[in-house]
Amino acid sequence: MKKNILQKLGVLALTGVLSVSLLAACGGASDSSSDAQDTAADAQTADEAGDAEEDTAEPVTLKIAASPTPHAEILAYAADALAEEGITLEVDEFEDYVQPNNVVDDGTYDANYFQHTPYLDSFNEENGTDVVSAGKIHYEPFAIYPGTKTSLEEVADGDSIAVPNDTTNEARALLLLQDNGLITLNDGVGLEATVNDIAENPHNLKIEELEAAQVSRAAQDVAFLAVNGNYAQEAGWTVADNAIAVEKSDSEAASTYANIIAVKNGNENNEAIQKLVEVLRSDDVQNWIEQEYNGGVVPYTGD
Q1: Is residue 130 part of a domain?
Q2: Are residues 132 and 266 both part of a single domain?
Q3: In this structure, is residue 55 part of a structural domain?
Q4: Model pTM score
Q5: Using CA atoms, how far apart are residues 224 and 219, in angstroms rounded to an integer?
Q6: Mean pLDDT of 226-238
Q7: What is the pLDDT of residues 112-153, one digit of tens each?
Q8: Is 303 exposed, middle or buried (0-12, 13-18, 19+ CB in 10 A)?
Q9: Does residue 113 fall inside a structural domain?
Q10: Is there a contact between 171 and 119 (Cβ–Cβ < 8 Å)?
Q11: Is there a single domain that holds both residue 87 and residue 109?
Q12: Mean per-residue pLDDT for 61-87?
């Protein structure tokens, strides 16, 4: 009897030990699983917080002053790509070459897109503004277009030729007239040439100095016009179809007059501004420019 009782007690004791062990093992697994679930929950909460922060981030809007053609058109094409980067463009068109720099300098606009660096440098010096380039985007070949005459071979004594009256664009026009044998400039004047630097004028040509936006509108009053690329585009003229003479691709002007995104000094490294420049110089936008303007606007591919 005692032996059987002891045996039974031994079995019960062993059963108890096994039960305690099993309970301890189950308890450990439960704690470990709970910790993993808590960690995953914490990670999910952090992700959701990050997503919420991104969703509530303020969108960036860039206010840009631009010439209608081609600048505002190029910006309009680039707008979708910039929207994907979280940047909204608000573009206002300006017909003149003065206000776009003034409104950037006074902070009303974030940037402008209408000019090249030589013009900007001259403008800053003459007006006390502090606007700088944030990046070069494209080049517009300067060209001579027909007015009342359609060929330079028709040039006669006393003919009038309309040119822009601002410092750098006038020099560009005069250099183009020189390259085509119509005038000769004083040695070394280069991109600072004015009508006062005309050394030889065999046809006694009258150089009509007009505000850049008005040159193309004088077609009925002058024999020829030396016109900025954007204003030629606005007039419906293309280099391929209408130009009588065009700047050479290796000319001093061609290497100098890339059109730029300009901003107030200190804003050129702004992240949104740099993204704007990056998108405008992307393969997609550059390919569109080449196809859209048929040689009248050439993407800038330098540094």
Answers
A1: yes
A2: yes
A3: no
A4: 0.66
A5: 7
A6: 89
A7: 999 999 899 999 999 999 999 999 999 888 999 999 999 999
A8: exposed
A9: yes
A10: no
A11: yes
A12: 97
Q: Which two tokens stand for residue 81?
A: 């790509």
Find out whether the peptide bond into 164 is cis, omega within 30 degrees of 0.
Answer: no
3 state DSSP class of 185: strand
Is residue 41, in this structure, part of any structural domain at all? no
Number of folded domains that form the chain: 2
Range of the domain at 131: 60-140+257-299
The reply to whether 111 and 162 lie within a common domain is: no
Q: Tokens 């280099």 identify what position?
A: 239
Q: What tokens does 115 get?
A: 């000019």
Long-range interactions of 8-17: CB distance < 8 A, separation 24+:
none
Sign of CA pseudo-dihedral 232, 234, 240, 241: negative
**Partners of 107 in the β-ladder:** none
pLDDT band at 5 (very low <50, low <70, confident <90, very high): very low
Instruction: Give the residue among 214, 216, 209 at the shortest CA–CA distance from 238.
Output: 216
Tell me the CATH number at 132: 3.40.190.10
